[in-house]
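thought: user wants a sequence for this fold. calling inverse folding tool.
action: design(structure=
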C-alpha cells in the first residue's frame, strides 16, 4: 500500500519503473501557482521523500504523460506553447518547443494536444478540429525542434475516427496500436483501439467482441514486486542538498 500522508491533497501521481511512485503538487497552506513540490516513494516502503521544487504549477488542468521516456523523464502540456519535461534523476526541467505548423491554426490550443512516449521517442498527438484531421508527431532528436516528424495524418470525416493517441509498435514496428474515439460503420461513437499500417498508410478500427463502449487503454509491464505493505507512514522532507536517503525511498 502506498503511503498517503502528503502535505497536499490536489496532486498528480505517477508510477514509474524501479517501483517508484512520483507525486507533484502544492502545499495546501502555501499554494503557489508558480511552482510544484516533487515527492518520491518506492512501492512497499513506508515513507515519502521530498526531492525539491520545479518552477511549474502541475495542479490544475495539467495533462501529464503516464509513461516516462527512458524510464526517468516525464512530460506534460498545459497553457503554454511548449512541452515541459522533468528528469527525476537529475531533478531538472526542460522546455521542448512544438512543431511550427501547430501554430498555423488560431483555434488550436494545448487542449487539442497530448504528449506521450512511443517506442523510444516522444510523441505529440494534435487534434486539428478546424481542418478535421489528426496529426501524430515524433521528435527524432530529443529536444531539437526541427527534428519533429509527422508520422501520418488522418481525416476524421473519411475514417470516422475523432481522436487518437499512439500506444505501442506492433508486428515488428510495421504497425502502430492507437487508442482513441470513433465509430464502426452502423454503430454509435465509442472508445476504440486502432491499428495503423505504416507501409500502406491505412488506419483500421479493431472490431473486438464484447469490448466496452467506454474504456481507458494503456501499455503496462509485468512485475513480481508485491504491493502489500499494509502500513501508512509519515512523509519526510529533506533539503535539496541532503544526499542521505531513507531506505526504501531512494531513486
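)
observation: tool returned 251 residues.
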Amino acid at each position: 500500500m502506498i503511503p498517503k500522508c502528503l502535505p497536499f491533497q490536489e496532486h498528480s501521481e505517477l508510477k514509474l519503473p524501479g517501483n517508484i511512485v512520483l507525486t507533484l503538487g502544492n502545499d495546501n497552506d502555501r499554494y503557489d501557482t508558480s511552482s510544484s513540490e516533487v515527492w518520491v516513494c518506492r512501492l512497499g516502503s513506508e515513507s515519502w521523500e521530498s526531492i525539491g521544487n520545479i518552477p511549474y504549477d502541475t495542479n490544475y488542468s495539467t495533462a501529464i504523460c503516464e509513461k516516462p521516456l527512458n524510464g526517468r523523464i516525464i512530460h506534460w502540456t498545459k497553457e503554454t506553447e511548449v512541452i515541459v519535461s522533468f528528469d527525476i534523476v537529475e531533478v531538472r526541467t526542460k522546455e521542448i518547443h512544438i512543431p511550427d505548423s501547430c501554430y498555423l491554426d488560431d483555434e488550436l490550443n494545448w487542449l487539442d494536444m497530448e504528449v506521450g512516449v512511443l517506442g523510444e521517442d516522444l510523441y505529440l498527438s494534435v487534434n486539428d478540429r478546424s481542418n478535421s484531421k489528426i496529426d501524430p508527431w515524433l521528435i527524432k532528436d530529443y529536444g531539437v525542434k526541427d527534428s519533429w516528424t509527422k508520422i501520418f495524418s488522418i481525416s476524421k470525416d473519411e475514417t470516422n475516427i475523432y481522436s487518437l493517441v499512439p500506444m505501442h509498435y506492433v508486428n515488428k514496428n510495421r504497425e502502430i496500436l492507437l487508442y482513441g474515439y470513433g465509430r464502426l460503420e452502423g454503430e454509435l461513437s465509442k472508445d476504440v483501439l486502432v491499428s495503423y499500417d505504416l507501409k500502406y498508410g491505412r488506419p483500421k478500427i479493431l472490431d473486438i467482441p464484447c469490448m466496452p463502449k467506454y474504456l481507458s487503454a494503456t501499455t503496462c509491464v509485468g512485475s513480481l514486486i508485491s504491493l502489500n505493505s499494509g502500513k501508512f507512514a509519515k512523509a519526510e522532507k529533506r533539503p535539496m542538498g541532503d544526499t542521505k536517503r531513507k531506505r526504501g525511498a531512494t531513486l
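thought: summarizing for user.
answer: Here is the designed sequence. The mean pLDDT is 76.
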